[in-house]
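>> Question from a student workshop board

For tomorrow's exercise we were told to take the sequence and the ligand below, predict the bound structure, and bring the output to class. My setup keeps failing. Could a helper post the expected result so I can at least see what it should look like? The ligand is ribose-5-phosphate.
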Amino acid sequence: MEWGMKNRLSQLIQKDGKALFLPIDHGYFQGPTRCLEKPGETIKPIYQYADAIMCTRGVLRNCIDPAINKPVIMRVSGAVTVVGEDLANENLVTGIREILRLNVSAVSMSVFIGTKYERQSLSNLAKLVDQCEDYGVPVMAVTAVGRELEKREARYLALCCRVAAEIGARVVKTYYCKEKFEKVVEGCPVPVVIAGGPKTETQQETFDFVYDGMQKGAVGVNLGRNIWQTEHPVAAIRGIRAIIHEGCNPKEANELYEQVIAGKA
Ligand code: R5P
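>> Workshop helper replied:
Here is what the output should look like for this input. Compare the format with yours to find the bug.
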């Protein structure tokens, strides 16, 4: 692996081998999602606890201070919306010149395996990997399910992660599943990070699945709504960070969460 690629990956995955990515890219297909109406404001109190921010070029250019001291993972797929026909029909929405111009540390795009757009999204992943590898920019593939949340089970996720890695993704982001998540990670030759999904009912549930996913081999998370849509985003991200980088269990993370809310930590 060349120096540039190694350097960028080390900005994302920290010295302890773990990573906490903070995605605020949801507007690319959902519009002004709740709590993300002003993405720059949303991340102000919390971004310092993240290892990288994930967003589109539009949010990056318009809402993020260029002097920010955090690596950026730029989403480069889109062109569909929640009011359109099919969320799986994504395309690449920018290319390598813009990726380099914006000086991002990595890019991400979704693949929709098992849909009628499987070939299109996987071919786009291959094209993106080819462009980015020339310049040492890591590609993070996102195994997306659109509205079909029930697809999130180990056999399907393992297939998606493996295929994305085979095509050349340097990191894969996928959903957590309660049963056999270790099979998803074991079958994937590149680091796997867990996406959050819709907001959980309690904060404890988030701490539980993050912890379990890490125990089963994930290197970290790419978690949005279960941080910035919660009542206490700073306490939430600090609890998650404690699990990822400080070896805390869910109970300890929850104790920290309560202490932060009470102003004692
Ligand atoms: C989703 O469309 C985006 O790619 C998000 O980055 C991803 O789903 C993770 O965010 P959340 O934890 O809110 O699901």
